[in-house]
């Protein structure tokens, strides 16, 4: 894409009420727009990053047999009454609205109820199980405070997967597969080293649930990290019993602020019982389906990456989620030689399906470089009179700052 | 994908309150689930069709320079008050809700207001124009009645593009490009022959707007079609003046029921003036940006295709939006020969990136064929003892019913 075509502009100012570093950087670089407190729109660069995050998650969910659906946001009150979650005293972050022809409906903050209900049409016998279903859907949560930028929004994209198994054992097997898939997701997203499988409160059906917590000062949670064992304990459940269960000692734990980028949860028969989701076993006996739920917030992940991978000049995207693979910057000369070479290079790279943002604007080198640092594409290529004198282009890695002169397009692509 | 893995089941019954043919077929075939009146979820097959519809529209919007974004659903009351569209007496299908910490917000039924406001950060000078921005976003409309299945839902996906130009002339140029892109979209979606550019009410800034109306008995609109000129007039504007403008005679027009699958609309400076979206012209003078809006509902299109392309056995997808390219059906023999050959064919086709739904279930031929007819994948391949005796497989076109015996996989792929 030519940058002269990209409609967004970088800017110095951010909305006065925006205190989160992730949102400040993303707004300044033109990735997102703040609509209201906790409500953000995604602009072309932001949508590109979001789509890459989503695709990595999708591939890993498919790899464990997940089938993708897209459930509705508008929620039937009756289903939520059946599980006791309609009342505002039970769920304190509902957005509710009214149908014109009568009746209250909710905006989904999660989807256990409608999906459990839907599966009654599709699960009859043990032969139909196991099943894993997931979606990327907008969730609405009426948060009292929303000061963490896109890390805690009132409207946000969520990947939520739900598993359906015949019994606790096969559920546990899938749960472990899902845990491994989550670890792969965060590794691929470039935040694996900072992300810990964290023991958290389990609810009625399992002693613990597992959160995926990424260490960052911008986090709203406190976790205790055991670095050697690559695990952590949420402050809420840190006690002697959990230390004993995990065979760790309090003195080996380090306190950190962290953000919950994912969580996985055993649900037992809670929803199946409430909504009547049963299957016939081999003996023809009706049994409740055993469920689990598995969430990742792609927007929250994107915000976390922005917090972790940025410097005083701007964003520093990992290659896997960089909005473009290459930021191609031309420093034009008066004779048009640089333009000719760069246009040609842009064509060739684009033809090879390399995603290139080509800064073809009539701007100073200073503006181009500072915009490029702010936007934070993982690799920069500069073409200038100076590089042409050496019959080369200059490449620069946004993260390491390493600069190289490269002679041919093949060398560029092979790197 | 192996059909034994697909969690959805075909079924005979549909919800009692579902009267629309499109939704009845799509529910029976396992494409969608009805959550409430006018609210549907998309299951794996339905999401695949939807994604194909979306991708065709996306390609054509990109081809006219559209830049994709994703705006928020939650809407700031202030912006809608500025244009006079907040009040329920002006817009009668708002869904509204309340923030926990005070204040009413709306659920977007369209996005002119937030996008116009957002563009103020990015449009400064005539050099920044033209711009075309689009999104695929869920819209919420509090319809009094919702009896047309996914053709008129209370929550539905919408592609909405907005154009920003320096003046009326450049706006008109883009408007014509968009019109052509729309025609390409409906052609590619397989409903081009039934779809007419239809003159409709224009509003304050242009005499007419243009609707894209597809002729079907399931439609809620009445249009008057001039077949030779490939145009139509909406009943709402049919009068002597429009006949004169279009140089057509009333007697050449044929009355039809139709569904509005798209519309394009000149907005003039209505939103720019109300929200202060201006640019500096070459003389440094501040002028309002001239806008247009361009909508297509992918869900409505999918419903329209289901209405047009179906028979008494089920759905009949056009190839371009068929959930899979091939429905591969194995009629197993007791010795496992058919299974071996079909497994192998499935592997080979999948490796060549052909999208195949492989019916590997232990079901009767009758069940497999009737499910296949109901699901309506454009091409069927049958492997059975009989076809193997001829060292062949049988292909069948779902639309024409044409059957052929094919000897090799290369012949299959070349077709």
Q: What's the structural blueprint in terms of helices and strands?
A:
Two copies of one chain form a homodimer.
Chain A: H1 21-28, E1 32-36, E2 39-42, H2 44-63, E3 67-68, E4 74-76, H3 77-82, E5 95-98, E6 104-107, H4 112-119, E7 131-140, E8 155-165, H5 168-188, E9 195-201, E10 208-215, E11 221-226, E12 231-234, H6 240-246, E13 254-268, H7 270-275, E14 278-280, E15 286-288, E16 290-296, H8 298-308, E17 310-311, E18 314-315, E19 326-330, H9 337-351, E20 356-359, H10 365-375, E21 379-383, H11 385-389, E22 393-397, E23 403-406, H12 409-414
Parallel strand pairs in A: 3-7, 9-12, 19-20, 19-21
Antiparallel strand pairs in A: 1-2, 4-6, 5-6, 7-8, 8-16, 9-10, 10-13, 11-12, 11-13, 13-16, 14-15, 17-18, 21-22, 22-23
Helix pairs in contact in A: 1-8, 2-5, 2-8
Protein name (chains A, B): Proline--tRNA ligase
InterPro entries (chains A, B): aa-tRNA-synt_IIb, aa-tRNA-synth_II, aa-tRNA-synth_II/BPL/LPL, Anticodon-bd, Anticodon-bd_dom_sf, Pro-tRNA-ligase_IIa, Pro-tRNA_synthetase, ProRS_anticodon_short
Pfam family, one (chains A, B): tRNA-synt_2b
Structure overview:
The structure is a homodimer of 415-residue chains. The first copy, chain A, is an alpha+beta fold. Chain A folds into 2 domains: 42-311, BirA Bifunctional Protein, domain 2, CATH 3.30.930; 324-414, Rossmann fold, CATH 3.40.50.800. Chain A is built from 12 helices and 23 strands. Chain A has helices at 21-28, 44-63, 77-82, 112-119, 168-188, 240-246, 270-275, 298-308, 337-351, 365-375, 385-389, 409-414, and strands spanning 32-36, 39-42, 67-68, 74-76, 95-98, 104-107, 131-140, 155-165, 195-201, 208-215, 221-226, 231-234, 254-268, 278-280, 286-288, 290-296, 310-311, 314-315, 326-330, 356-359, 379-383, 393-397, 403-406. In chain A, the strands form 6 sheets. In chain A, strands 9-10-13-11-12 form a 5-stranded mixed barrel. A 5-stranded mixed β-sheet of chain A has the order 20-19-21-22-23, sandwiched between helices. In chain A, strand 11 and strand 12 (231-234) form a beta hairpin. In chain A, helix 2 packs antiparallel against helix 5 (168-188) and helix 2 (44-63) crosses helix 8 (298-308). The longest helix of chain A has 21 residues, at 168-188. The first copy, chain A, is elongated. Chains A and B meet through strand 1, strand 2, helix 2, strand 3 and strand 4 of A and strand 1, strand 2, helix 2, strand 3 and strand 4 of B. Chains A, B: Keywords: Aminoacyl-tRNA synthetase, ATP-binding, Ligase, Nucleotide-binding, Protein biosynthesis.
């Amino acid at each position: 894409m030519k940058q002269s075509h990209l409609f967004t502009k970088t800017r110095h100012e951010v909305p006065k009420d925006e205190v989160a570093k992730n949102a400040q950087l993303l707004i300044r670089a033109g990735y997102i727009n703040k609509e209201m407190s906790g409500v953000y729109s995604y602009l072309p660069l932001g949508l590109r990053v979001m789509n890459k995050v989503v695709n990595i998650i999708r591939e890993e969910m498919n790899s464990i047999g997940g089938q993708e659906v897209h459930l509705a946001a508008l929620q039937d009150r009756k289903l939520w009454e059946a599980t006791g979650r309609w009342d505002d005293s039970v769920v304190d972050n509902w957005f509710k609205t009214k149908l014109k022809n009568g009746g209250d409906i909710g905006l989904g903050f999660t989807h256990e109820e409608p999906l459990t209900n839907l599966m009654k049409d599709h699960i009859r016998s043990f032969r139909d199980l196991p099943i894993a279903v997931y979606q990327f859907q907008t969730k609405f949560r009426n948060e009292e405070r929303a000061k963490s930028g896109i890390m805690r929004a009132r409207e946000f994209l969520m990947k939520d997967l739900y598993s359906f198994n015949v019994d606790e054992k096969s559920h546990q097997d899938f749960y472990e597969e899902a845990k491994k898939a989550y670890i792969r997701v965060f590794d691929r997203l470039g935040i694996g080293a900072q992300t810990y499988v964290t023991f958290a409160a389990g609810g009625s059906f399992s002693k613990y649930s597992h959160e995926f917590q990424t260490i960052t000062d911008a986090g709203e949670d406190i976790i205790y990290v055991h670095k050697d064992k690559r695990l952590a304990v949420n402050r809420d459940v840190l006690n002697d019993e959990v230390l004993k269960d995990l065979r760790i000692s309090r003195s080996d734990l380090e306190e950190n602020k962290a953000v919950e980028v994912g969580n996985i949860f055993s649900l037992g028969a809670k929803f199946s019982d409430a909504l009547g989701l049963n299957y016939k076993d081999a003996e023809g006996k009706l049994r409740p389906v055993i469920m689990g739920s598995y969430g990742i917030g792609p927007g929250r992940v994107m915000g976390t990456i922005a917090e972790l991978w940025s410097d005083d000049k701007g964003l520093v995207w990992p290659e896997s989620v960089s909005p473009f693979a290459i930021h191609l910057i031309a420093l034009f000369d008066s004779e048009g030689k640089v333009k000719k070479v760069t246009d040609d290079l842009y064509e060739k790279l684009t033809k090879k399906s390399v995603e290139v943002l080509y800064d073809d604007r009539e701007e100073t080198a200073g503006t181009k470089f500072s915009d490029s640092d702010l936007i934070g594409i993982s690799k920069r290529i500069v073409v200038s009179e100076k590089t042409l004198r050496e019959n080369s282009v200059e490449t620069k890695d946004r993260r390491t700052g390493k600069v190289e002169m490269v002679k041919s397009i093949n060398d560029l692509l092979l790197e």
